[in-house]
Structure formats: C-alpha cells, structure tokens
Specification:
heterodimer; A: alpha/beta; Amidase signature (AS) enzymes; 11-stranded mixed beta sheet; 37% helix; 12% strand; B: alpha+beta; Arc Repressor Mutant, subunit A; 9-stranded mixed beta sheet; 3-stranded antiparallel beta sheet; ATP-binding (chain B); glutaminyl-tRNA synthase (glutamine-hydrolyzing) activity (chain B)
C-alpha cells in the first residue's frame, strides 16, 4: 500500500518533469528517518554517488553505473530525515554552463513555457527541479559557477559554500581543487536549513577543513553580522568590484545593470555603506580557471578506461592489442562527449612537460594573485592563510577600510534560447559560454562562499516614479529586457558563509519588497 | 680510486630502490595490504579500484614508517612536502595515475655507511608513493588478468647519488639496506616476494672526463641478478665505447634484465620516454611534518643494526664474545618476521634482547653458546626458526644455573632442553629435571663421589675392551666412545670433565 503510494509519487514526479528533463532518475520508495529535515524533499545532482540510484554524471561512460556507496552528503541528509526524491540532470561530469552537454538531453528552463530556454549548467537539473517546484531543495556542485549560473537563469537561490566545508567524499571529481557541493532552493532560508546539515567535517575527504578553522570563520562572520543586524544595515560594508561589469554586460544587458543599481540604492537607504572596489586580476581569472579546471579534469577523468566499471567499447577485430592505452582510447573516444573530450585535450596539453610551466604553473600563480585580490578588499582576514608561517604568502588586508561582502551580477545575460546554443547541427561560437563564467570563477579559484539570489528585473517592476535615486537606461527597447530572471551574487571571505547567507536574506527581502 | 677502474674505465652506478612499507593497510586507503598467497582481487576497496567519488586518505602509520627510514638513512626531513600525480594509461594503474612525490619529496640529503662498502653512500632523496596492481598477461590468448591486491600499497623510493663503482658495492648496499630497513621495521625487504626492487643506473667514462651516458636497468629482484646485470652492462657499454674509431656513444636507454639469458635487454629508448604530466595532487595538499612529530618517531624507533653491533661488541668482548658470535646472534633477529605498522610492543623478544636478559649475572660467553648452539641447534633440527617464546628467559636462566652449579651435566641439560622444546609444559625446570631423573647424583646422593664414578668407569673399560686398548695405544679420540657409554648408562648424570680425568688415570 505504502509502496504503491510511493511509486505513484515517483510516477507523478516523472510526469511533472516530462517537459523540463530536470530529473534523470527517481527514488521509487523514498524512505525517511525521523529528523529535522522530515518535511524537506531533496533532489541530488547526478554526479553525487548514491547506492540506491544510478550515478551517471550525464555521461555515456557511466550510463549504467551504480556506486557501491552513498556520498557523505547523502548520508548526512538521510540521517537528518530528508526525503531524497531523485537524481538531476547535469552537464557531463559538470563540464558546461548550459546543461546541454548531457547524455540525457538538455534541461528546459521551467521559468516560463513561452520559449525553450537553457536552464544553465552544469547543475541545470537541480536548478530546474527547484524552479518547477518538483522538490524543496537540490544539491548541486559548483566548480566555476555551476550552481550560481543555473540558479540565476532559473530564478532560484543557489549557494556555493566555502571550499572545504562540505564533504566531497562520494562526489564525482571534475576538478578536485575547485569542486564544491552546494544547495539550491526557492529561498535563502531553505538553503540555510539544508546547508547546516551538510556543513560537517569529514575525515574521508582530505580537503575537508578542520573544526578550528570552521569555528574561526564562523566567529568572524557573526562579529560582522552583529555590527549591522537589526532594523538598519548601518555598519555593513558592501564592495562593488568594478571588474565585474564587463563590456558584455554593459552593452547587452542594461536591465541587469539597472536592477543592480536599484538594489544598491535600496541597500544604501537602509544604511549599508557601498564601496567601489577593484579586483585587478579578474581579467586573468577566467584563463587561469580553464587551465586549472581542464588540467585537473584530464587527471580526474583518466580513471574511466572501461576496465573496472562503466562503459567498455572493445576494439574492433584485428586491432593492435599490445598497447593498453590504444585499447582504452576506443572506450574513451566514444564514452566522453565533445565538451569533455575538448577539456581533457586542453588539460592534457597544459600538463605536458613543454607546456607545464607556461600554462599550469602560470595559472597557479594567477590563482594566488586572484586570492590576494580578495584578501586585500575584505575587512575579514582569511583564516586559512592567517596562520601560515611564510610571511610572503600573507596579504595585508585593508582592515577597517575593507568590505564585508562583495555584490555583483551573477551572470552577464538571462537564459539563452536552447535553439541558439545547441551545437547539434552547426559549429557555433562557444566563447560566449566561457565569458559567462567570468563573474563566477574568481570566487571558485579562491574557494569563497558565493550566493546567487534572484533579482527583481526592471521589466517586472512597476514603472518607478520619477526622481528616484537609480537611473533607468534611456531607450527602453533593450532586447534583454525579456522578463527572464537574473541573479545577484553575494561573495564573502572564506568561512563567512553565515554572513553571506544573512546578506542574501536582506537582498531577497528587498527584491520581494 | 684507480683500484676500481675496469681496463681504464670508471664505472658509475646509482641505485633507486623501491621497498614496500610493512603496514597493515594501504597508503591512501583502508584496504588491507596483501601477501603473495592471498586470493587475487581479495584485498582492495572502492578507492583502490578507482571508483568515482572516492578520495585518498593518508595512512599515518605508513608516514611514520617512512620517517623511520629517513632517520635511519640520516636524511633531513622536509617540514613541508607534497604529493604529485604521475599519469599514464596502463592496466596496472586503474586510476590512470600514481600518487608519488615528484616535486617535493619528504626526505633528502641522507647518508648510508657500511663498513663493507668502504665509503659513505649519499642518499639523494626518499619519496613516498603507491605501488601498482599486478597484471598477468597471457600471450597465447592475448588477454591480461588484473589483480588489485597490491595496488595502492605504500612504497618508499630510496634514491642514491651515483656513488658506487663496482657491482659488489651495489649488491652490498642492497644487502645492508635490506638489513637496516628490516631492523627498524620499515619493510620486510623480501626481494623474491617483490617487496624490494632495484633500478640500477650504469655509465662508463674515462677518469677525468665527463660522465658517460647512463642506462637504467629496471626492476631487478635479486642481489645475484644485480651483480650480473651491472657486469653485463659494463661489458656491453665498453664494447660500444671501444668500437674502433671511438665515435660510438652509448644510447640513453631503459633496459631490463633477462635471468634466462643472464643479460640486459632494451626496453625503450629516450625518445620513447613517456610524458608523465606530473601535477600536484589537489586532494592531498601540503604535508606538514613537525619537528616534534619527527622527534617522537625517532624516540620510538628500534636501534639501528650498526649501533646494536657496536654496543654488543663493547659490552661483551671482554667476556670472550667475538664479532662472529654477535653476527650470528644479530642474524637471528634479521630473519625474524617484521611486524606490521612498526609495532615494537611485540610480546616475543628478539635474539639480542633474549641473550642480554639471559646473561644478566651469568657468563655471557657461556649463555651465548647455549643460545646459538644448543637452543638454535635443537630448534633448527625441529625445523623451527629462532624464537624466545619456547623457553622463557627465567626458565633458560634456571637451566643454565643448574649447569654452572654442577647440579646437571651439559648432556642432561641438552636432553632437558630438547624435552622442553618438543613437549612444552608449565612445570618448572627443576621439576622437569627431577621427573626425567636428570639431576646429578652429586646433588641427590651426596655420598656419590669419585668412588662411584671410578666404578662406572671401570665397568666401561670392561664393557669396551677394544676401545680401551686403542686408548692405551695412544688413540685419545676413542675416549669419547667410553664417555658416551658412561653417559648412556648414567643417563648423563656424570660430570664429563671429571669422568675424563678418572678414565685417563685408569687407562694409564
């Protein structure tokens, strides 16, 4: 009886999802333990290992793969009583920003059904599942923006915590030093609620940060929150990084700009201090990110050879069987999609002896400069580095002149039409997809907490009375003023996740305002 | 130096040794390490099989054993070191890379001294890394079977500077390194079982000229092969260099040793050398080793064999114990099973410790002879290796005291020892001796004196007239036959030296 009811629930979810393709598998009979998350239904990105459901990573390589174990985050959620409803679509191994590179097909953005738009990626299925109301919250992973970007496109809240807070054990690696598990939900409070149960030290993950650092970061965050929390935002210092308004943004998306301006005006009127800041290395961050992510990706994905598990494509009869790597090549050429193959090749090149210094090492140096940029503008010290013995790696922060959080648009555009981005038939310019990442990768390179909250877009506003503080762009016939959602990002110092989420709540309230 | 030249050629040899760390679990996974006779694919977990989502977790026990090796080889330990991925596609490496320490090994600049090599050998570095799986290729069916038991086992790669000049020095290094690593519990160093393998670099040059091009001979798994491989390589390279015209150069190659043909063969040339795409492992980050921790490892470390040897010599030479005796004693310890994870609280004492405890308040030379000749002799007759567990120190002490106080003859003591080894019992030594009627008559019947002994000796001479005649004729060796007869008759209860004297009197 209960079972029939349960599989009916799965069937009903399946039929509701038919037009979005957000899910790739459903839990037949979700079992829940008694716990604080009893009321919460949660979907998991399909690169998070579950013993009960397949874990495909959106790849032909793992199409029939079932993990022998549950990821630590899955275990924690189950223990807290959450109901795991299914696994969500994603770009293959998390590589992509539109969720169009998946063996399961593209995810359709559920925001409106009048046009077929991309949900964003790579956690597109998780964002869409939340946006369509198919679950209360979803876990995604963010390597260079893979949570914040689809959250922005689908109009939901997406949170990438500080690197090292949430266990990666059982999360299929794309780039180990960047991959971060995070939460997507309709509102910040729900994100917070789920996040607190997965924010645990895990000895199975060597990159899981120790309790001492977590506590130090939390204390610093709460000190900041206590300065301004209450009716007024007096005492909150918000930095606006000038480099996060690239030409792509200013030329095409004035509605994004005006929405941001409106938000800042509101924050200022509540007492927040708005400070223009500069993160000069931002322009190099994207290149460094793609070198590091691809290099690590080529390494992390070298385990897929068709021997121990997953897809195996045997070589044709008469093939030279003496070379192991040539035998693997059959499986790898067919098992990986275009985007993954492209990044593996790029990463393999970046690690080759001739290119290593100029690409990989250079990218690591840039990564450090990007980190230093952030440490320089935040008023809160980076607790991970403040105890380091080597003085040269320590950057003097601005102290009281610094800012508590940074605020900038999450993306440079609203969700693109799927017809314009699908590369099934013709070669298209994929550079745009990468430029999109420019606003999200610096926080990834630095392991900082970053939250994308839906903004109220200009077109959804009632015409504002003249004389208001923000300026409407002249010539209102902007092609991007399309009514599709856009997110605003709040970025904080490492470990100040609580602060970022609190500011996110304020922004959320203003947007609903 | 000239004494090492081979027809005017200077031979330069360096060695890289891979030793398996004697840990109960693997280097980065909690799967148990394996023995050769374990069923294939019975000792691995999801991490070892490179399942997606698994992450490495450094085994601290491996690290501490690695530190012991570094300290034993007088290395400086880097406070900060890191792990790197060495990428290649091969079936013995399911994850597609080996985790090793390419850029920043944990120990550098060591020194190894052995009196038998004659000069100190510089240790360039020691790195921690993972062992590979084993693939068994069937040429006929053109298939490979993969056994994951070994994959991920902790390995130390110990790299020397090119300081050796002869094959014998190289082999002596391997031998003493093996002894050293066993003594400090780092590895069992078993070459046959593959827990110690050597790669040897060999090059030739004329003295005063730049070093020649080196060839590396990979995966040598016996000392004999090492000597043979180096000697073959010297002759092979000489033949190239001495080709008329002297224009030929030795090509840089990686070679293997063929034990059937007793020669080296080319595996790949420099051009075929793979690009391993080394990358810092993003999961493992920086490994920090504090001075405090290193000191703790140093304190817990068993003494080095060289230190033990010189201490024993210093302590016991005056008692008549010689170098040979000590080598025999130490070899007993050297062949003991090495315990896992560097455990030293093992209940069984080593031979050295057993000897030292037994000789407290006794004559060390006498004690040592009993341990080496009698205890070990009888154990080896029973097909058993040395262990201090058969006869505890206290029991052995009483047994020895019964001899020195003449309550028991040597022969009786040997008999008793055998009895105790074959039929272990909880009874005290004295009780056992009484039960077997082995205590000297001197002890039990104070009246029994030289007269009784004289009677027995007379009976012996009567019983063995031809032997007695031979002794009278001057053949002293035959005396042993008479003594043997007396021993049998009295079940060894007589004092041999006294009997000898009496027999001599009676026969002259």
């Amino acid at each position: 009886m209960l079972r029939r009811f349960a599989s009916n629930a799965a069937a009903s979810l399946r039929s509701k999802d038919a037009s979005f393709n957000a899910f790739v598998s459903f839990t037949d009979s979700p079992k829940t333990e008694n716990g604080p998350l009893n009321e919460i239904s949660i979907a998991l990105k399909d690169n998070i290992c579950t013993s009960g459901l397949p874990t495909t990573c959106g790849s032909a390589m793992l199409q029939d793969f079932r993990s022998p174990f549950d990821a630590t985050v899955v275990k924690l959620l189950k223990e807290a009583g959450a109901q795991i409803v299914g696994k969500t679509n994603c770009d293959e191994f998390g590589m992509g920003s539109l969720n169009i590179h998946s063996i399961h097909g593209p995810v359709i953005n559920p925001f409106r059904n009048d046009s077929r738009r991309a949900a964003g990626g790579s956690s597109g299925g998780s964002a869409a599942a939340v946006a369509a109301g198919l679950c209360d919250a979803a876990l995604g992973t963010d390597t260079g923006g893979s949570i914040r970007l689809p959250a922005s496109y689908c109009g939901v809240v997406g949170f990438k915590p500080s690197y090292g807070l949430v266990s990666r054990y059982g999360v299929v690696s794309y780039a180990d030093s960047l991959d971060t598990v995070g939460v997507l939900a309709q509102d910040v409070q729900k994100v917070q609620k789920v996040f607190q149960y997965i924010n645990k030290r895990d000895h199975n993950d060597p990159t899981s940060v120790g309790v001492r650092y977590r506590e130090k970061g939390r204390v610093l965050a709460m000190e900041s929150v206590q300065r301004w929390d209450g009716e007024s935002l007096k005492g909150l210092r918000v930095g606006i990084p000038q480099e996060y308004f690239p030409s792509e943004l200013t030329s095409t998306s004035s509605c994004i700009l005006s929405s941001i301006r409106r938000l800042l005006v509101q924050l200022r009127s509540l007492g927040a201090f708005i400070v223009p800041v500069s993160l000069p290395s931002t322009e190099y961050a994207l290149s460094a990110y793609y070198v590091i992510a691809s290099a690590e990706g080529s390494s992390c994905l070298s385990r897929y050879d068709g021997i121990q598990y997953g897809l195996r494509v045997p070589p044709p009869p008469g093939f030279d069987l003496t070379s192991t790597s040539k035998i693997y090549a059959h499986t790898r050429s067919q098992g990986f999609g275009r985007e993954v193959r492209k990044r593996i090749l790029l990463g393999t090149y970046a690690l080759s002896a001739d290119a290593f210094d100029n690409f990989f090492l250079q990218a690591q140096r840039v990564r450090q400069i990007v980190r230093n940029d952030f440490d320089r503008v935040f008023s809160i010290e980076n607790v991970l580095y403040s105890e380091m013995t080597s003085e040269e790696s320590k950057v003097e922060g601005p102290g009281v002149d610094g800012v508590d959080v940074l605020i900038h648009p999450s993306t440079i555009r609203t969700a693109p039409h799927l017809d314009n981005v699908s590369d099934a038939s013709r070669e298209r310019d994929t550079i745009q997809d990468y430029v999109q990442d420019v606003l999200t990768v610096p926080a990834s390179l630095s392991g900082l907490p970053a939250l994308s909250v839906p903004m109220q877009t200009s077109s959804s506003l009632t015409p504002s009375p003249p004389g208001k503080g923000y300026q409407e762009q002249a010539g209102g016939e902007d092609k991007n003023r399309d009514g599709w959602p856009i997110g605003v990002s709040i970025v904080g110092q490492w470990g100040t996740d609580e602060l970022v989420l609190r500011v996110g709540q304020v922004v959320e309230r203003l947007n609903q305002g | 130096m000239s004494r090492w030249l081979v027809d005017g050629w200077q031979v330069i040899i360096g060695i890289e040794t891979h030793v398996q760390i004697r840990s109960s679990q693997k280097l980065f996974s909690r799967a148990p390490t394996s023995l050769l006779n374990d069923l294939p694919n019975s000792r691995y977990n999801a991490f070892d099989a490179a399942f997606p989502g698994t992450l490495p977790r450094l085994n601290k026990k491996c690290l501490d054993l690695a530190l012991r090796a570094a300290l034993a080889l007088d290395c400086s330990v880097n406070e900060r070191s890191s792990f790197d991925r060495k990428h290649y596609f091969y079936s013995d490496q399911p994850v597609g890379y080996q985790i090793t320490q390419h850029y920043s090994p944990f120990a550098v600049n060591g020194r190894f001294t052995s009196p038998k090599i004659g000069m100190p050998i510089r240790i360039k570095q020691i790195q921690l890394e993972q062992d590979t799986a084993k693939s068994v290729t069937n040429v006929r069916t053109r298939t490979s079977l993969i056994d994951l038991n070994r994959v991920g086992t902790g390995l130390l790669e110990i790299v020397t500077e090119p300081d050796f000049r002869t094959a014998d020095q190289a082999a002596e290094y391997a031998r003493s390194l093996q002894e050293l690593l066993r003594a400090v519990g780092v590895s069992d160093g078993n070459m046959e079982a593959g827990s110690m393998r050597c790669d040897v670099n060999v090059s030739l040059n004329r003295p005063g000229e730049p070093l020649g091009m080196r060839c590396e001979i990979k995966n040598i798994n016996s000392m004999k092969y090492m000597v043979a491989a180096i000697e073959y390589e010297i002759q092979r390279q000489r033949a190239i260099l001495e080709t008329p015209g002297h224009t030929q150069k030795v090509p840089q190659e990686t070679r293997g040793f063929d034990p059937d043909g007793w020669k080296t063969f080319k595996m790949r040339s420099k051009e075929d050398a793979p690009d391993y795409r080394y990358m810092p492992d993003p999961n493992l980050g920086i490994m920090v080793l504090s001075e405090k921790h290193i000191e703790a490892v140093r304190q817990a470390m068993p003494p080095l064999p060289a230190a033990t040897r010189s201490r024993l010599l210093q302590t016991y030479t005056s008692s008549g114990v010689n170098e040979n005796n000590i080598d025999v004693l130490m070899n007993l310890d050297a062949i003991q099973d090495v315990s896992y994870d560097g455990a030293t609280e093992d209940s069984s004492l080593g031979a050295v410790a057993y000897f030292e405890l037994c000789s407290k308040g006794r004559d060390p030379k006498f004690v040592l002879n009993w341990i080496i000749q009698d205890l070990c002799g009888q154990l080896s007759a029973l097909g058993k290796p040395f262990s201090s567990q058969y006869i505890p120190v206290a029991q052995m002490g009483i047994l020895l005291d019964l001899i020195t106080t003449k309550q028991m003859t040597r022969t009786s003591a040997k008999l008793l020892l055998k009895q105790m080894l074959v039929f272990p019992s909880d009874a005290t030594v004295r009780r056992l001796a009484e039960n077997m009627d082995l205590l000297s008559p001197v002890d039990r019947h104070p009246t029994l004196d030289d007269n009784n002994l004289r009677d027995i000796c007379k009976r012996a001479i009567d019983a063995l007239p031809s032997e007695a005649a031979a002794i009278r004729a001057g053949n002293e060796n035959v005396m042993n036959k008479l003594i043997g007869w007396i021993m049998r008759q009295t079940r060894g209860k007589v004092d041999v030296s006294r009997t000898y004297i009496i027999l001599k009197e009676l026969l002259h």
